[in-house]
Amino acid sequence: MEFALDEFYKLLVKGTYALFYFAANDKVALLIGNKDYKMAQHLNTLFHPLNDVCDLAGVLRSIGFKVVSLVNLTLKEMEFALDEFYKLLVKGTYALFYFAGHGFEINGQGYLMPIDATERYHPQENLPAWKVLETMQNSEAKLNIIVLDCCRTTPNDKPTETIPVDNGCYQPIVTKANVLVIHGCLPQNSVFESEDEKNGFIAKHLIKLIGQNKPLSKIKLEFSKAIHDENIYDPEDRKQQVVHIHTTEIDDICLADNTAVHMQGACAVSGAKGWKAAHEIPEDPVTVHKRDGVVVELLFMAEFSNALIVTARCRPDNYHVTFDMPECVSGCLVTKVTGKESTIRQHFSRAESAIRIADLQRLQGNLEMVLVLELDNEEPRRICYTMREKPLFAKIACQN
């Protein structure tokens, strides 16, 4: 009996340690989706990069990732985001980079296209894929995952070299263990999406699989098979879209592993503060008008790290409030949204009017909003509100 009790206590202690075992010091992700290209007339139409980033961000957050999601970035903005991402990659971190948008290859070197790229396909106007890998490998991250959901074809007027299917451009420069590079297609092939789907095929299956409590090695195989089983073929040359994966995994890692944040050094602390700042929005509701029994409030939601949804509501119900703002305010793009959009319907009730403020990384000065309060037979009242604190990613980008 004494032996049995002794063994029981050993197992109990071992189990206690297991309860508090943390595989990762932190888990961080940078997701970039580029859709609205300035040279769109020279490119195939993209349908889902923004949905892909939004939905993938939600899944990653559900398993404990800190996510920075950015859409429609220029080259300088992509480079800046990558530099800021690097600051988060402390020792023991699980790091994931995802790009959805246009891409191409020249002489075996891949490039990710920013929205301000020109039809020249000049390497200096685009972000080299190797730069993403180099940045992440230069960190002390425990796991580096790079997912490139973009084409790898060579523009017709550029020189090309034949690239063997089993020798992607990343293999010669992967320099450390636990690196996983996922291309959405093979070299000199294209990535496809369907307008009828909510997401692109790559994101669709990542979203289904990446949040599961399974080893990364198993998810990788299931993901490859899922894309193959979609039976996606290039309409011109009938080549099937097949994912191209290069890996140097040595640990049986699960992305749903527990996390213990151990910030080490000034750079790590600065990076953590930067990530937190990139997600700060005003505590709502914010009362912008309170007079004669009429109350107007604003509510806020981060759609992406550089896109803010602002809704207005008022009491009593017989009053009506709307935003009265131009398309460009302080360097940001402003568009009207409706309560029918799922993001509005899920997060707000009684929202009368809503706007989307995008491109927050380009915010100049304070963000100023103008609303109009109306009631039948009364003169409309104009309400002005100035957001003193820069929201979301603007807090980081506008300091540089």
Structure description:
This protein has about 400 residues and is α+β, with helices and mostly antiparallel strands. The protein folds into two domains: about 250 residues, Rossmann fold; about 120 residues, Sandwich (Immunoglobulin-like), CATH 2.60.40. It has a six-stranded mixed sheet, with helices on both faces. A six-stranded antiparallel sheet has the order 10-11-12-16-15-14. The protein has a three-stranded antiparallel sheet with strand order 4-5-6. The radius of gyration is 24 Å and the shape is globular.
Short description:
Residues 25-155 form the Caspase family p20 domain. The chain is an alpha+beta fold and 400 residues long. The chain is built from nine helices and 18 strands.
Keywords:
single chain; 400 residues; alpha+beta; Rossmann fold; Immunoglobulin-like; 2 domains; six-stranded mixed sheet; six-stranded antiparallel sheet; 9 helices; 18 strands; globular
Share in helix: 10-25%
Mean pLDDT: 85
Radius of gyration: 24 Å
- Please list the strands of the largest sheet in the order they lie side by side: 2-1-3-7-8-9
Give the SSE map:
Blueprint: H1 2-19, E1 26-33, H2 49-62, E2 66-71, H3 75-86, E3 93-100, E4 103-106, E5 109-112, E6 127-128, H4 129-137, E7 143-149, E8 179-183, H5 201-209, H6 216-229, E9 244-247, H7 265-277, E10 286-291, E11 294-304, E12 307-315, E13 320-323, E14 328-329, E15 332-337, H8 342-347, E16 353-358, E17 367-374, E18 381-387, H9 394-397
Parallel strand pairs: 1-2, 1-3, 3-7, 7-8
Antiparallel strand pairs: 4-5, 5-6, 8-9, 10-11, 11-12, 12-16, 13-17, 14-15, 15-16, 17-18
Helix pairs in contact: 2-5, 5-6
